[in-house]
Amino acid sequence: MKKGKRTTIYDIAAKLGITASSVSRALNNSNQVNEKTKELIMKTADELNYKRNILASNLRKGHSKTIGVVVPRINQNFFANVIAGIEEATYQKGYNLIICQSGESHDKEIQCVNTLINQDVDCIVISVSADGSDYQHLQNVIDHGIQLIQFDRVAEELETLKVINDNEQASYEAVSHLIESGYKRIALLEGPQNLSIFKQRKVGYLRALKAYNIGVIDELIVENAWTKELGAEGTRKLLSLPQPPDAIFASTSDFSALGVLEVANAMRIKVPAELGVCGYANESFSEITSPSITTIDQFSIYMGQTVANLYFQEKGNTDTATKPKIISIKPELIIRASTAKNGKS
Amino acid sequence: MKKGKRTTIYDIAAKLGITASSVSRALNNSNQVNEKTKELIMKTADELNYKRNILASNLRKGHSKTIGVVVPRINQNFFANVIAGIEEATYQKGYNLIICQSGESHDKEIQCVNTLINQDVDCIVISVSADGSDYQHLQNVIDHGIQLIQFDRVAEELETLKVINDNEQASYEAVSHLIESGYKRIALLEGPQNLSIFKQRKVGYLRALKAYNIGVIDELIVENAWTKELGAEGTRKLLSLPQPPDAIFASTSDFSALGVLEVANAMRIKVPAELGVCGYANESFSEITSPSITTIDQFSIYMGQTVANLYFQEKGNTDTATKPKIISIKPELIIRASTAKNGKS
DNA sequence: TTTGAAATTGCAATCGATTGCGTAATTTTT
DNA sequence: AAAAATTACGCAATCGATTGCAATTTCAAA
């Protein structure tokens, strides 16, 4: 077999003087075929370098053993980790992954989802992009009878399986930690509020302030500061205030926290003595900055595995109640140097 | 359409009292069908929320419009970037990506490749794992008439399309830079020599020493130091030598260089004054360590795009000569603080 | 009005594997 | 050894879309 057509079950059947049915059954290890014949078939299949045509198989079977994944960016630590986790768990079960990136564009996200529907994937796993709050395309997935699992950035109003982080609680703990470390005027760098994860983090921030009887100061809350650059910009404004904050919670990401660090450094403001900094996501770099950044670990790989397992688990379920299951993973506060106001950590 | 079957071209045909042939043609925008009918078909297709079944289509057409990618780890910056680049370029052309990770295991790599062959992918893009030097599985890909493109970590003996970095030259320039910066005893942390990329980097190192008339000192060359931990371990040994090096080229990765930095720090050896450090790969963290790390940028996203474009370009080619094309991308030395011996950068 | 070419549409086979149903072959049971 | 029960295998339809070829319709030129 060089350039020629690939071998099919018919080729094997012809060579052995039997039917394709038997070959198919043998290849699927059906017990409806004689052991001897089965062995013979296996052997010739091997000789002919036969490889099953999955397209045909899936078409007939009505499923694709393929899971589609849509994320804003593949090359972002958190998402890459989640995908790695999903891949690991699904590969063992013989499933394949089709990966798409929306690039934070709602339009491309819609395109991706439609492509995946076309591909006849058995399940679509998605973390929605930041712009857009119309989720017709996701409803469409459900209407097509395709399992939909949202993770991290989810459209809350949609009743689907979800795997999320307890953002509010994590945020609450982070801010509590800042307060208990002795910081008094704590600023918040927040992300786009149409994403629930950012909304929840803000709620956690507010809840912590309340719990410690600290008033909310509007000018310490900076909107839309979710990249390193925007974080830096927000920090410059904050630190130029008549009464600047003595801590900044970059609730959007460690990148944003990195921006904070750079600005503080440029302004010769000492972290953590004069300014406490807390990030989010435990990016690999956060432990090697100086000072290292206190942050929140989201167990991203585990999250991916959880998504995969959730799918397999629900797959077995006979449509009993179709209760939208939500799995919440508790993130962990990682305390490092950037919040050690009094030298203690 | 709720739980029911998905709509097919037959449903559309039935509703319109025509044949599936016409529907198919209309959907493929063939000029063999009347404009009016075409419009009508399009409209009803839309109304019925029709989505083409790609499996059936591909089965018939004999290709899958799918590209398989095998990398050691998805969640490693370099690979995530390459994949992002491939995705970007292929998505536009309506191709899908199936991603697998070998986890640096030769066995799993073989499995992955076979799965992809089964999946009937049109092309397999691979960066081989570190262990194993048997490439029968790759030959198998070729024998199945599937386009094979290797990138970065390639099996040189296999005549396939390749997209690589000019590792030797980059390495040569890095070491030259160290020498010109005033460092005299330059150590090398090298990676598994069965991977050509690491071999080439070593050659570049040796060539630079020779060019500047510096003798090779065997004890300054540390084998298999390609993780942060192994890099640190190697560094400890190097720095405990009677005559320790005054610079270390961590040719394997920035992670390894990070290990160097940490050990130097722990031993209170000043970088870059007493020890120059150069990494490889321009990981995002390399610019925010202190000091920031001189490293080599591999243009990973661009590399991915190049792989994709190479595929599309070759696809058109009628089997003229089947010359194995090799595209070499020139990496760029990024000079930062960790090699500024005399304060100059 | 007739004729011929061009434009549309239908028919039926095909891509490769799977599977329900029926029949033939084999084994087991009396 | 005959009847009953398995077991093994073949037949043919099916999954949904595509496409070469044939048939029909349309339209303009003669």
From TrEMBL, chains A, B:
InterPro entries: HTH_LacI, Lambda_DNA-bd_dom_sf, Peripla_BP/Lac1_sug-bd_dom, Peripla_BP_I
Record SUPFAM superfamilies: lambda repressor-like DNA-binding domains, Periplasmic binding protein-like I
Domain of life of the source: Bacteria
Transmembrane region(s): none
Domain HTH lacI-type, first and last residues per copy: 7-61
Entry keyword annotation includes Transcription: yes
PROSITE patterns: HTH_LACI_2 (PS50932)
A molecular-function term among this protein's GO annotations: DNA binding
Name of the protein described by the UniProt record: LacI family DNA-binding transcriptional regulator
Higher taxonomy: Bacteria, Pseudomonadati, Bacteroidota, Sphingobacteriia, Sphingobacteriales
